[in-house]
Design goal:
The chain is mainly α and about 80 residues long. It has four helices and no strands. The chain has helices at about 10-20, 25-35, 45-55, 60-80. The model has no long low-confidence stretch (mean pLDDT about 75).
């Protein structure tokens, strides 16, 4: 999500939610453990790197973004809240 942006796309909403959930020390530590245990998320050791990757996806690269989002949704449903 760009600073001052009013964008309501899926990636920007996901970004806002991840920052709300993980923008504290415990949340960042939990994300790093989560990412380290996931083949899909492992290339993104920080939430910032993950979101930058998602924002860079073009029309012909959606499968990568789809995999990441699927992993986030599946893992989020099976993990306790980090708040």
């Amino acid at each position: 999500m760009m600073a001052g942006s009013d964008c309501d796309c899926l990636i920007c909403r996901l970004e806002e939610r991840l920052f709300d959930d993980l923008n504290h020390e415990k949340g960042m530590e939990q994300y790093q453990c989560w990412a380290a245990s996931s083949e899909v998320l492992a290339p993104f050791p920080t939430v910032g790197q993950l979101l930058a990757h998602l924002h860079r996806q073009g029309k012909d690269q959606n499968s990568s973004a789809d995999e990441v989002i699927r992993e986030l949704v599946q893992a989020g449903a099976s993990r306790p809240s980090v708040r």
